[in-house]
Design a protein that fits this description.
This protein has 380 residues and is α/β, with parallel strands linked by helices. It is globular and about 70 Å long. It has a single domain, classed as Vaccinia Virus protein VP39 (Rossmann fold). β2, α5 and β3 form a beta-alpha-beta unit. α8 packs across α12. The structure holds S-adenosyl-L-homocysteine. The site of S-adenosyl-L-homocysteine has 25 residues, from α2, α4 and β2.
């Protein structure tokens, strides 16, 4: 059966030791990296003297990063409007994620944050309005022309479903041990993933193009890959998890058929694949495209190419990967394998680190509606 992500996917909810809220430092780096772009986009919108500023964070999850984005926006509005003695727009902030996301935790965090902000800002405090918006960002989420700034961080590599053709008998051998594209995958298999990404990313762009107000911006960051020759670091990240699952199959702890049926709905594209989808879909102009590298271990800030403490780095990686795919693995294999699975995974990741320091490639894009760019040119 094809897994529909919309119905089963979520990060680990709550605020406990294994929750996404406590294990989202890796993803925080992207929010820090996009800060100047967010500030620029907010200033640009403020120039038009809007009465309100409507922002949506797509794939907000249930952790603090979305609030970091919100504080970047509030501070930029404050600074910009105070420096020009202008009336501040009222801020409406939409939190979007799939319906299984732990919105309760997110709402509680946002209320605590509001309280803290009120204390910090004193007289200068202006209320902002946080709204939950459950649903898949591959569909329409908001009324036409109603949002000025879309932001999405570490979310768009998640596909709406595992590519359908993957269940064909031709991929039987692959499915027995793999959960994502691996070094032995055929080009047909990689193509299936790319096709799913094309469909999903085009649907995303189409929906947002209807919802964005003219003059608004969309700032996206997601995992990509830099090398056309290789399938990127994700093949190792997930290959090491598949290896742990395979070992558990051979010890009789996981059913073989269950592993055969498990594939991850994720794809890390090349920048040229992303560019070509944006061009083909046709609604947006890619104003900026950047990429940065991020160590697998979010606590490792060094630029050296070797990992000093491989065991602790392995455990760090396993902990946040558990917060990300733990709920999906638990819904498929059962809760009781998680502890064992991720302790094996931590060891596999440590071993992998003897080959050098593994890194992710993260893409950052700024998009504007195309008509506007043309309209601008027309004015010149
Ligand atoms: N932006 C957050 C969370 C990143 S985790 C941060 O930076 O910390 C990725 C999030 O994307 C998850 O919460 C997941 O549920 C969400 N997601 C994945 N596919 C989605 C979809 N189709 N629609 C909405 N949210 C989605």
């Amino acid at each position: 059966m094809t897994m529909i992500v919309e119905q089963v996917f979520s990060m680990m909810g709550g605020s406990g030791e294994n929750s996404y809220a406590k294990n989202s430092r890796l993803q925080e780096k992207a929010v820090i990296m996009t800060k100047p772009l967010v500030e620029e986009a907010v200033r640009e919108i403020c120039k038009t003297l809007p009465e309100k500023l409507v922002v949506a964070d797509l794939g907000c999850s249930s952790g603090p990063n979305t609030l970091l984005l919100l504080s970047q926006i509030i501070n930029t509005v404050d600074e910009y409007c105070c420096s020009l003695s202008r009336q501040k727009p009222e801020i409406q902030f939409y939190l979007n994620d799939l319906p299984d996301n732990d919105f309760n935790t997110m709402f509680q965090l946002s209320v605590q944050y509001q309280k803290k902000f009120r204390e910090e800002k004193g007289d200068k405090y202006e209320p902002f309005y946080v709204v939950g918006s459950p649903g898949s960002f591959y569909k329409r989420l908001f009324p036409s022309k109603s949002v000025q700034l879309f932001h999405s961080s570490y979310s768009l590599m998640w596909l709406s479903q595992v590519p359908k053709g993957l269940k064909d008998e031709a991929f039987d051998h692959f499915n027995r041990t793999a959960i994502y594209i691996n070094n032995e995958s055929s080009s047909i298999l990689s193509h299936l993933y790319l096709e799913q990404f094309k469909t999903d990313f085009s649907d995303f762009l189409k929906s947002r193009s209807k919802e964005l107000i003219s003059g608004g911006s969309m700032i996206l960051s997601f995992l990509g890959r830099s090398d056309i020759q290789s399938s990127g670091e994700l093949i190792y990240l997930w290959g090491l998890l598949a290896e742990a699952l395979s070992a558990m199959v051979s010890e009789g702890l996981v059913e073989e058929d269950k592993l055969k049926d498990f594939n991850l709905p994720i794809y890390a594209p090349l920048m040229e694949e992303v560019r070509s989808i944006i061009t083909m879909e046709g609604s947006f102009h890619l104003k900026q495209a950047q990429s940065f590298e991020s160590n697998w271990d979010p606590f490792d800030e060094s630029y050296e190419n070797f990992v000093e403490d491989k065991s602790s780095s392995g455990r760090n990686v396993a902990k946040y990967i558990r917060a990300v795919v733990g709920p999906l693995a638990a819904s498929h294999f059962g809760d009781d394998i998680l502890e064992d699975l991720f302790s094996r995974y931590a060891k596999n990741v440590s071993r992998h680190m003897y080959n050098g320091k593994p890194k992710y490639t993260v893409f950052i894009l700024v998009l504007k509606l195309k008509g506007e760019v043309q309209a601008h040119r027309g004015c010149k």
